Amino acid sequence: MRTAELYLGDLEDFVWRRNALAKELRQAGDEDEAAQVASLKKPSKVAWALNQVSANEGRLRDELLAAAAALGKAQERLMAGKAERSELREAAEREQAAVGALLDGADLSAGAIERARQTLHAVALDEEVRRQFEQHRLVTDHEVAALGGLAAGVAPNRARAKPAGDGAKRKEAQRAAREAEVHRADAERSVEEAAAEAERAQRRLREAERALATATKEAEAARARLT
Fold it and tell me: What is the domain extent for residue 22?
């Protein structure tokens, strides 16, 4: 059993497997590694699900990483006055599509989808989160905060890069980034609304099934009384 396997095995017995590995390492005389393994935290449900997707859906994982890189490059080009806003918008849409494709493969409830979405956007924003995602070792959910008007998906070193050109170019770039962020937020709301409607439909179906079962029992009881 390897350390990396801890994050890809069954979530419910993570603590048992972690402690077993730490014990094995101590018995082998590797106290330092045993202590490191024993300190590993159990992943959240969202982090665990995204680890599974990262490990099992290599094509989708690589597309997200490539889309995030393209979005950062488009941001840089726009701020340097070398690109149009449409280039940034297209790059943002590609990143959103990559996130959506990964979420399709995640075993998550509707309520956890938004936390997973934010975590996947953080993969592009934060180098440490990206490293954990690539190694299938995410531990917790992450939130994306706007950095100076930059759209989600821009890596930190790019987000903090000094913009070239005058103030007008900088404002233009920030406005384009905000538009891309609004577009992403609208898409997220649409997904949330669709998920909520699906849950309501399932609830109505369950209520109808219960009503049908009750009516069937009542009809059977009525027939029994008649006979």
Answer: 3-38
